[in-house]
Design brief:
It is a single chain. Helix 1 runs antiparallel to helix 15, helix 6 runs antiparallel to helix 12 and helix 7 crosses helix 10. By secondary structure, the protein is mainly alpha-helical. The protein folds into two domains: 89 residues, no CATH class; 217 residues, MetI-like fold (Orthogonal Bundle), CATH 1.10.3720. The longest helix has 36 residues. 72% of the residues lie in helices and 0% in strands. The protein is built from 15 helices and no strands.
C-alpha cells in the first residue's frame, strides 16, 4: 500500500507542475504585468511612470523566466516565475492587492467554508443514497416512477432558484433564519441552517438519480440473482450486497469532492454573505486581485489531484479486483 501511494504521488507531481506552468502562461504571457497594472490603475490617463511604480511595488518589474542581468542562481530566482509561481509549492502565496497576507486569509476563511460544505456533503450523501436505494427497492412501482420525476424536475432547476427562493420564503416571509451574514462559534448555526438545507436540496435531483442508476445496474448482476436464489430476503440483498458493491462507482464522485470542500461554495457563500474561501475567490475576481486568484487556482488544482489520489486508494480498499501492482 505504501509503495502504491508513493508511486501515485510521484505521478501527480508533474501534473501539478504542468498546471502551474499553464497558469503562469495564462496570467503573465497572455495578460502581461503592464496589462495588470492598467487594470488596477485604470486604463485611461495612466502614465508609464505610474505603471512602473505599480510593478515595482508588487515585484512585477523583473523578467518573466530568465534574468540576464544576474549571475548563477539569481538569474533564475530573480524572476517573476520563481517569485510568483514556484513559491506556491512552498505555500508562500505572498500578499494581496490590499497588502493582506493571503495564507493568513486562507487559514481564517477555511473554517466557515468547511462549516458550510461538510454538512451539505455528509447529510446530502446520506439523503441521496437512502432515497436512491428506496427507489431501487421499489423499482417499477409508482414510488419509483414519481421519485424519478421528482429527481428530473429538481435537477432541471438552477441552484440560483433554490437560493433566491429559500431566502425569500425562509427569511423574508417566515423569518426563520437570517437572510445572510455569519458569526463565529455556536452563533454560526443560525446562519448556516438555511444554506445547508438549500445546498442539499439543490444537489438532490442529480445525485439521487445517479445513485439509483448505479444500484439498478448492480441489481441485475449474477451475484444478486444468486443471493436471491439462496432465499435471502430482499432487504438483506439490497443492504448487504447491492449497497456495498454499488458504493464502488459512487466513490468516484464522492472522494474527489472531499478535498474541494476546503474551497467552499462560490455561489452559496457569495449569496449568503459567508466569509469563506468561495466568496474570497469571487471578491478577488471582481477586484482583479491576480495574486489571490492565482493562489486559489493553485490550491484548487492541488486539492483536485489529492482527490484523484484518494479515489485510486479507495478503489484498492473496496474492490478486490484492483491490485496495487
Amino acid at each position: 500500500m505504501l509503495a502504491y501511494i508513493v508511486r501515485r504521488t510521484l505521478y501527480a507531481i508533474p501534473i501539478l507542475v504542468g498546471i502551474n506552468l499553464f497558469t503562469f502562461a495564462l496570467f503573465f504571457l497572455v495578460n502581461t504585468p503592464d496589462d495588470m497594472a492598467r487594470m488596477q490603475l485604470g486604463v485611461k490617463r495612466v502614465t508609464p511612470e505610474a505603471i512602473q511604480k505599480w510593478k515595482a511595488d508588487r515585484g512585477y518589474d523583473k523578467p518573466l523566466l530568465y534574468n540576464a542581468g544576474q549571475d548563477g542562481v539569481r538569474s533564475v530566482s530573480e524572476t517573476i516565475f520563481f517569485e510568483k509561481s514556484l513559491k506556491l509549492f512552498a505555500f508562500d502565496f505572498g500578499r494581496a492587492e490590499d497588502n493582506r497576507d493571503i495564507a493568513n486569509e486562507i487559514r481564517t476563511r477555511m473554517g466557515p467554508s468547511l462549516a458550510l460544505a461538510v454538512p451539505v456533503f455528509l447529510v446530502g450523501l446520506a439523503v441521496n443514497i437512502t432515497f436512491a436505494l428506496g427507489m431501487a427497492f421499489f423499482r417499477a412501482t409508482y414510488l419509483d416512477f414519481w421519485g424519478v420525476i421528482l429527481c428530473v424536475a429538481m435537477m432541471s432547476i438552477s441552484s440560483l432558484f433554490y437560493i433566491i427562493g429559500g431566502q425569500y420564503l425562509i427569511s423574508k416571509l417566515w423569518h426563520l433564519a437570517p437572510i445572510s451574514g455569519y458569526e463565529g462559534g455556536l452563533d454560526a448555526l443560525k446562519f448556516l441552517v438555511m444554506p445547508v438545507i438549500i445546498g442539499i436540496i439543490s444537489s438532490f435531483g442529480g445525485s439521487a438519480r445517479f445513485y439509483r442508476t448505479v444500484f439498478l445496474e448492480e441489481m441485475g448482476k449474477d451475484y444478486v440473482r444468486t443471493a436471491r436464489a439462496k432465499g435471502l430476503a430482499e432487504s438483506v440483498v439490497m443492504f448487504r450486497h447491492v449497497l456495498k458493491n454499488g458504493l464502488i462507482p459512487v466513490l468516484t464522485g464522492v472522494v474527489v469532492v472531499i478535498p474541494t470542500l476546503f474551497l467552499g461554495s462560490l455561489i452559496s457563500e457569495s449569496f449568503f454573505g459567508i466569509p469563506g474561501l468561495g466568496s474570497y475567490t469571487i471578491d478577488a475576481i471582481q477586484a482583479q486581485d491576480f495574486a489571490v486568484v492565482r493562489s486559489m487556482v493553485f490550491i484548487g488544482s492541488a486539492l483536485y489531484i489529492v482527490g484523484l489520489l484518494l479515489t485510486d486508494i479507495s478503489y484498492t480498499m473496496v474492490d478486490p479486483r484492483v491490485r496495487f501492482g
